[in-house]
Amino acid sequence: MMGLLLLLTFACFGLTIWAQFKVKGNYNQWSKVAASSGLTGAEVARQILDQNGLYDVAVEPVRGVLSDHYDPIKRVVRLSENNYYGSSIAAVSVAAHEVGHAIQHKEQYSMLVLRHRMFPVVNLTSGIAPFLLLAGLFLGFLELFGLGVLFYAGAVAFQLVTLPVEFNASSRAKDILLKNGFIRNQEERGVNKVLGAAAFTYVASTLLALVELLRFVLLFVAATRE
Fold this sequence. Notes:
InterPro entries: Zn_peptidase_2. The chain crosses the membrane at residues 121-139, 145-165, 194-223. Keywords: Membrane, Transmembrane, Transmembrane helix. By secondary structure, the protein is mainly α. The chain is built from 7 helices and 3 strands; from the N terminus they run H-H-E-E-E-H-H-H-H-H. A 3-stranded mixed beta sheet has the order 1-3-2. Strand 2 and strand 3 (76-80) form a beta hairpin.
């Protein structure tokens, strides 16, 4: 059983790496294709925010590649410079996705609310979990190892909650882009490629985390029977 899990771990790790390459590949491809609207990512983000009454949510450029995110504390949509200033299919897709999170925040989307509530605890426990697991494993402290497994399970639960949040934001983005004429029907393929690849990275990393959790649980159960 442990051998099978080890193989699954390597397979999921490979899938995660492949997903990252897929994201970069699709992004690079569609960042070279101009959107028919001619609007930049920043302009699309601003228009969608205003249409949803989110006038107080700012849109700011941030350094880095694919460093785009929504800050729920400062209520700011931050777009990487290529997406902020660019008017490509990739730029408007990413911009609409991040605004999707701002809309989720406004509407108190249940999974986003749960994710925000989990974050402070998981942020702490996920950093401690590896040390507890290693200490428990090499020092033979079963209680420490069990606590590490519990903390790691919390991090996995956080990843599972993140999945519907990301998929919902992408779904909102696609609908808004089409409904408001930011893209045409023939451009929808590019939007699907960009956002679909990004979503798959979350799926791959969650699968890897689940397999790792199962391996830790089996190790813990085996140790308690010795």
